[in-house]
Amino acid sequence: MKSDEINNLFSQFEAAASELEGVECWSARELQSLLGYSKWENFEKVIQKAKDSCNNAGEEVVYHFPDVRKTIPMPKGAEKEIDDILLTRYACYLIAQNGDSRKEEIAFAQNYFAVQTRRASWIREMPNSGALITT
Questions:
Q1: Would you kindly state where each structural domain of the chain is located, as residue ranges?
Q2: How far apart are the C-alpha atoms of 113 and 88, rounded to whole Å?
């Protein structure tokens, strides 16, 4: 993967993130296209595998994968409500781990969410460590 492709994907993943009640999250519908899945049905299978992994790890699936409804615009000014899922960083990491690794977007996401998860962990640990980090 070329440097400009990596930078572009990084920007897209960052732009897709939102915050709800202090928790960074992504819309499954938006993540679907970022990960190169054209059909929701195919992406739902990956989400289910990730939910199974989450459950097997002893985590609360409903916390990391809460179901939501969202309104999307339709032709001629109409709107439609569709199912969506808010995904925590951990949920996105599990989705990337369970996705089709032949897709460049999945390979990128595996690294992106692993690094972001580790960075968040460091930030949480810093106040307790007494360490001073300078750049």
A1: 3-129
A2: 10
